[in-house]
UniProtKB/TrEMBL annotation:
Taxonomic superkingdom: Bacteria
Lineage: Bacteria, Bacillati, Bacillota, Bacilli, Bacillales
Protein known as: Permuted papain-like amidase YaeF/Yiix C92 family enzyme
InterPro entries named in the record: Papain-like_cys_pep_sf
SUPFAM superfamilies: Cysteine proteinases
Length: 158
C-alpha cells in the first residue's frame, strides 16, 4: 500500500460501480484514467463527481488507481487541499466537459471555465494556481482532463 499524504492525486482506473461516463472519459482522452480524487486522511477523499456535487468520498469505492503527488512542500499541499475542499457542494462542470470533448475529439480549440462548477482534474489545477501562482499544466484555462494532469511535470508518482 502507498503511504498517502494530504492532497495526493488519486488517478482512478476503476470504481466498484463502473459507469458509461467513466468509459466515455477514457475514450475521449485516450487514457486509462477516468477520474481523479484528492486524498484527505484515512480513507477519506474529496472529488468533483459527475453524479453529485463536489464532496467527500471513500477510497474503498475505488478498485484500481495510481497516485501522484505535487512536488511542493507538505504545508503548501495542505493549503491547496483546503482550497479544493472549499468547493464542497459546487455543481459539476458540464461546460468544461463539453469543451474537452470538442477539443480532444474534433480538434476545435474551445476552452471553458465556469468558476462556480468543477470537473475532477480542474480542482487541483485551479487551487494550485490560486495558492501559488503555478500553472501545473501547459494551458491557460482550468478545463483539463485526468490525462492532462497525469502528464504534469509538477506531479511525481508515489
Amino acid at each position: 500500500m502507498v503511504n498517502l499524504e494530504p492532497c495526493d492525486v488519486i488517478f482512478v482506473r476503476k470504481r466498484k460501480r463502473p459507469s458509461l461516463f467513466a468509459w466515455l472519459v477514457c475514450w475521449i482522452t485516450k487514457s486509462p484514467y477516468s477520474h481523479v480524487a484528492y486524498y484527505v486522511d484515512g480513507t477519506l477523499l474529496f472529488e468533483a463527481n459527475a453524479n453529485r456535487s463536489a464532496g467527500f468520498a471513500d477510497l474503498s469505492d475505488l478498485t484500481e488507481y495510481d497516485v501522484k503527488r505535487l512536488k511542493l512542500p507538505l504545508e503548501t499541499r495542505r493549503a491547496i487541499l483546503n482550497r479544493i475542499i472549499a468547493t464542497e457542494g459546487a455543481g459539476y462542470g458540464w461546460g468544461e466537459i463539453a469543451a474537452l470533448f470538442l477539443r480532444l475529439k474534433f480538434g476545435i480549440n474551445v476552452f471553458y471555465d465556469d468558476r462556480q462548477r468543477y470537473i475532477c482534474s480542474e480542482e487541483i489545477v485551479r487551487a494550485t494556481y490560486e495558492e501559488t501562482g503555478l500553472r501545473i499544466v501547459d494551458q491557460i484555462t482550468f478545463d483539463v482532463s485526468p490525462a492532462d494532469l497525469w502528464r504534469s511535470d509538477y506531479l511525481t508518482e508515489v
